[in-house]
Amino acid sequence: MIIKNQYIAGLANKGQRDDSRRLDEFREIRIEVNPIANAEGSARVCIGKTDVIVGVKLSVGEPFPDKPDEGVLISNAELSPMAHPEFEPGPPSEAAIELARVVDRGIRESHAIDVKKLCMKAGEKVWMVNIDTQVMNHDGNLIDASSLAATVALRNVQMPRYDEKTEKIDIEKKTGALPLKDSPIAVTIYKIGSKLVVDPTYAEEQASTARLTVSTTEDRQIAALQKGGIEPLSLDEIRECFRLSMEKGKEIRKLI
Amino acid sequence: MKRADGRSAGELRPITIKAGVIPNANGSAMVAMGKTIAVAAVYGPRYLHPRFKQKYEKALLNTVYMMVPFSTSERVRPGPSRRSHEICKVTREALENVVCLEEYPKAVIDVYINIIQANAGTRTAGINAASVALADAGISMKDLVASAAAGKIGDEYVLDLAGKEEEETDCDVPVAYVPGQDKISLLQMDGKLPPEDVEKVIRTAIEGCKQIYEKQKEALRERWVQK
Q1: pLDDT at A173
Q2: Which CATH number fits domain A21-253: 3.40.50.2300, 2.60.40.10, 3.30.230.70, 3.40.1110.10?
Q3: What are the structural domain ranges in chain A?
């Protein structure tokens, strides 16, 4: 493992990768829209061998007391033991919690969902948007794959009908799209050796010493940041991460 | 610009750091940043159970961040939350690089951070306290880590957000800074801002970290250098 990490870092220092990609090149991204019939909106995103499904389910509930006229966004991520030998069953791991929270942050802070329009009765009843990420196969870069799947799933939500009398949701009756204001794209830049790299495979992720996730909006603003990994980054590297993620975000946005 | 508590934009809250506050711990520190108070205690390096968690090449750094139930106006439910799990992780990653873990193979170094009073910036106060506590425990370190948050309110870049400022700011950016390397070991952001402005917010936070770094060293001198 240490030898493999050194090999990957050595390649990166020379500007090369094991699968002969450029350092700033993504693997092939495939997007499948609404693969899950029972979800109000869903998307499956494959980046190389990484495979993630996000399903959006709507429910009706009470708003938070400090935001009585806003719908609620709830995100969760499941690193299923099916997806990688390292993943174990049981309560969500630190990695799963971070994944869910980073996906959530990009959507929340970009104001992608117009939460004011999800209010039915202020202080009492609002739509709750549940974003659930299910990792099917893990070969690196789960944050970008999950964020992209979440954005695509939200764009394809068909709101179900809510019956005030019976207080039930009928997902067979569609009432239109979810009110959206933006489509954030998260791009994570990894540091491997002395170089900045995008879209690592699992093996490359193991060799990386730091990462910075940058969520960008349609109007080219940054909507969320999350650094991971133990190596500190210089301000110059962080600036380069901003530039790279802006550029890659623009490319990925063309796919949705 | 005058802020709600009378500070200027680039001014930290009054900060007090004291090393050696928990007699039982190998090292400890209390950091008060305005009304936010964090206490950190370090136990170890000590034997790591269960053994399969041991690493043959270095010690395990275990950071536990917790807000005590009475720390906020609305009671915090005891026990870990999703938020605290994430903060444990980013705190560990912010500190891990400066601690010479390779000197203590197979051991664990436990760092317990309790927020006893919260008024914004608890993770940064926690990192400041943890960093001093590790040094106080006599653990080999390359440097201290200093941490502060910054944001942007109107046209002003403001350092060390407090109280209601967290709601007014366009963004909240906690930063941890390793002064000896001039590098950033924790960076998160909530909010929405163009990249050039984000960079200015980060620079503002770094200036705050540099001042905190001096206070951290002062606290350690106060405890360990004979007058």
Answers
A1: 87
A2: 3.30.230.70
A3: 21-253
CB-based contact, A228 to chain B, within 8 Å? yes
Cβ atoms of B97 and A230 within 8 Å: the answer is yes
Instruction: Give the minimum alpha-carbon distance from A224 to chain B in angstroms, rounded to a whole number.
Output: 5
Sign of CA dihedral B193, B196, B200, B205: positive
This model of the complex carries an ipTM of 0.89
- At B1 the pLDDT is 72
pLDDT score of B2: 79
Q: What number of CA atoms fall less than 13 Å from residue B31's CA on the CB side? A: 33
Task: Answer whether A165's CB lies under 8 Å from A75's CB.
Answer: no
Contact at CB, B187 and A110, closer than 8 angstroms? no
Say if A191 is an interface residue toward chain B (CB within 8 Å). Answer: no
Residue A170 pLDDT exceeds 90: no
- What CATH code is carried by the domain that includes residue B57? 3.30.230.70
Taking the Cβ of residue A229 and every Cβ of chain B, the question of whether any pair is shorter than 8 Å is answered with: yes
